[in-house]
Recover the amino acids of this structure.
């Protein structure tokens, strides 16, 4: 396929939504959220049967339940606030896809990333996420791509090692 270029600008809302959905999709995070909901349910049921002031252990259960249930929201807000400090993510980024590499260019940043350096890929409704390591990814807006281009990028997905 001939090299092609797309331009993407990531908004804070898009970034937050992608992180939020990915945190709540993980099996571990779902399990943790369920445990948090159970702890909250236990606290509420105990509070309804005992009309007295909550004892300290009940308060601990409720705090732990809230934390576990809302943990993905906290993590998403924290990560989306990091967007303020990352000028590359905030600016308009031009991605050029070639057979050998992805060329990334934005204000003050120019890089060429070999397809071999892509750790993994993930596809959402709006974005292709090309991970360069376990925590960093390139956000490619799928609305700027046609079907052949999406298939081409996904065909470069690294094999499991």
């Amino acid at each position: 396929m001939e090299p092609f270029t797309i331009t993407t600008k990531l908004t804070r809302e898009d970034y937050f939504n992608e992180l939020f959905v990915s945190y709540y999709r993980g099996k571990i995070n779902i399990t943790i959220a369920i445990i948090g909901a159970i702890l909250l349910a236990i606290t509420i049921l105990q509070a309804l049967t005992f009309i007295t002031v909550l004892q300290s252990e009940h308060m601990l259960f409720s705090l732990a339940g809230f934390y576990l249930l809302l943990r993905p929201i906290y993590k998403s807000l924290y990560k989306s606030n990091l967007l303020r400090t990352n000028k590359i993510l905030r600016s308009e980024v031009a991605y050029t896809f070639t057979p050998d590499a992805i060329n990334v260019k934005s204000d003050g940043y120019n890089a060429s990333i070999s397809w071999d350096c892509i750790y993994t890929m993930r596809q959402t409704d709006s974005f292709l996420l090309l991970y360069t390591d376990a925590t960093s990814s390139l956000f490619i807006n799928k609305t700027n791509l046609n079907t052949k281009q999406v298939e081409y990028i996904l065909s470069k997905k690294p094999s499991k090692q």
